[in-house]
Design a protein that fits this description.
Layout lengths: L1 E4 L1 H15 L3 H17 L5 E6 L3 H15 L3 E6 L8 H10 L5 E3 L9 E5 L11 H12 L3 E5 L21 E5 L2 E2 L8 H4 L1 E5 L15 E3 L4 H4 L14 E5 L7 H12 L4 E5 L5 H7 L4 E3 L4 H7 L2 E4 L7 H12 L5 E3 L2 H7 L2 H13 L3 E3 L3 H8 L3 H6 L1 H12 L2 E4 L4 E4 L5 E4 L11 H14 L4 H23 L6 H7 L1
Length: 486
């Protein structure tokens, strides 16, 4: 996993490192410059232009200029802003740089450079870019040079990913210490280019007991999947009851069941209307099949219950959902139409909340529309900070909530938020959510912790989608491709 920080968290960890641990700020700046130098040096540039603001981000740029000049690379520095108002570390780096063969300019140079380095603003941006800084950003974006941003592309809000007036469109960003939220959220992630995280001495020791409130997965699938017991049998790896599908609509049930098997569930039983029997048994003979009349016995058999994919909002579906909540204490995954039915019934939500409070394991997987209905909040408002609304619902229902969007968030009270940074536009296709439901339920059936099952499930689903896109392309993907490739 990798931590993902806000601007305030980063400021505090920087302060802790300097004041509590004892690493001087100039040492951290030197390490940042070395990390940037390594990325520049590997491209073997003939010349480099560094556009530096007057804060510590600009100071990183000045230190980089010195390192480049020491290696004989023609380096020009364009300082943007009032030098008299510069940070103390910036002023120190500027004085040091006077002893090196670096050129300075006061406006945009006319010549082209191999590399342009954006060291304008960093994470401290608090207002829209205008004036001299806007001119500098436009000059960078109009250049044909390879662009490297230091810490975060200038103009991107480090907390939200929003563009503050204008922003540098970088080819590559080297960020220091930890990933910043804004470079992972849309639209900021579209400006960061290839991201490198550099260790400059601000690490876990800098938390002083207060860890970041967000992280992302970076492990391989093999590292994250539940351990397989060599002596185990099909019962060892979990029995999943999947209530899915509606009359003559069996596809969602098939996708979810297949996906649960693909991630290691030992047994899957599908409950679906009798009209779906033949297609389900032909499409996935590995799974057992039953109708709603078998619900009581099936609940007694199962280890985990998932309900919702393709369910419909029919009275029969509603009755089955009520029984699944009222008559069972099984770990529960609620998806798709189960969420829509839940959104329309305040009493049922209250019952679910009481069960969650009493210790029942509950995972909800709403997309933005479903979350909007569950919380009675507009999608536009949700888009501002989806994880905050996901956490709100998680607290209300004492559950784990996966907010599904281009960036998905796994939320549980008392836990950091897991942001998923993998996946692609080809996964925005009918049935993809059914596959995810099966993945999460399959992991839960193997006795994974509910937060881990949800977080890891989202990640495995996403990296599988990325694998499929390599062969199918984003335009050609189907949900069945994802299920088959798990």
């Amino acid at each position: 996993m990798k931590y993902v920080v806000t601007a305030e968290e980063m400021r505090q960890y920087d302060k802790n490192t300097i004041e509590k641990i004892g690493l001087p700020g100039m040492v951290l700046m030197e390490r940042a410059a070395i990390a940037a130098f390594e990325l520049v040096w590997m491209r073997k540039p003939e010349n480099v232009l560094i556009i530096a603001g007057i804060g510590n981000n600009g100071g990183d740029g000045l230190a980089l200029a010195r390192l480049l000049s020491e290696r004989g690379i023609q380096t020009c520095v364009w300082c943007v802003g009032d030098k008299d108002r510069a940070s103390e570390q910036w002023k120190q780096q500027y004085e040091i740089l006077q002893n090196y063969p670096v050129n300075f300019c006061n406006e945009a140079p006319l010549k082209e450079y191999s590399i342009v380095v954006d060291a304008l603003l960093g994470v401290g941006l608090s207002r829209d870019i205008t004036g001299l800084y806007e001119n500098a950003v436009n000059c960078i974006n109009n250049s044909r040079s390879f662009t490297l941003s230091l810490d975060i592309p200038s103009g991107i809000c480090s907390d939200t990913g929003n563009v503050r007036g204008c922003a540098v469109k970088a080819d590559c960003t080297v960020t220091f210490g930890f990933l910043k939220r804004g470079m992972l959220l849309y639209p900021g992630c579209e400006y960061a280019g290839e991201i490198h995280v550099a260790d400059i001495g601000i690490g876990n020791a800098s938390f002083l007991g207060k860890e970041p409130e967000m992280f992302c997965c970076e492990e391989t699938a093999e590292e994250l999947l539940p351990e397989r017991i060599p002596s185990g049998n099909k019962g060892t790896f979990g029995k999943l009851l999947l209530i899915a599908g509606s009359v003559n609509m069996a596809g969602a049930a098939i996708l979810a069941a297949k996906s649960a098997y693909r991630v290691g569930a030992g047994m899957v039983k599908i409950l679906s209307p009798k009209e779906n029997r033949e297609i389900i048994q032909k499409s996935i003979p590995d799974a057992m099949y039953g109708t709603y009349e078998e619900l009581e016995a099936s609940l007694a058999w199962a280890d985990v219950l998932a309900i919702g994919p393709g369910l419909s909002k029919s009275p029969e579906a509603k009755a089955v959902l009520v029984r699944a909540i009222e008559d069972s204490k099984l770990p529960l995954v609620l998806d798709a139409d189960a969420l829509n039915l839940l959104a329309d019934d305040e009493q049922l939500k209250e019952q679910l909340s009481e069960q969650g409070k009493a210790g029942r394991v509950i995972i909800l997987t709403p997309h933005m529309g479903e979350l909007s209905r569950l919380l009675s909040v507009s999608v536009a408002d949700l888009k501002e900070a989806p994880w905050e609304f996901g956490m709100k619902l998680a607290k209300q229902l004492h559950s784990t909530v996966v907010v599904k969007d281009a960036r998905s968030f796994t939320c549980k009270d008392g836990y950091p938020v897991c942001i998923n940074t993998k996946g692609n536009s080809g996964m925005a296709v009918a049935g993809s959510g059914d596959v995810l439901c099966g993945v999460i339920a399959g992991l839960l059936a193997q006795k994974a912790d509910c937060f881990i099952a949800a977080s890891v499930g989202v990640y495995l689903h996403a990296i599988t989608g990325d694998k499929v896109a390599l062969t199918r392309g984003a335009h050609g993907m189907m949900a069945s491709d994802i299920a088959d490739s798990l």
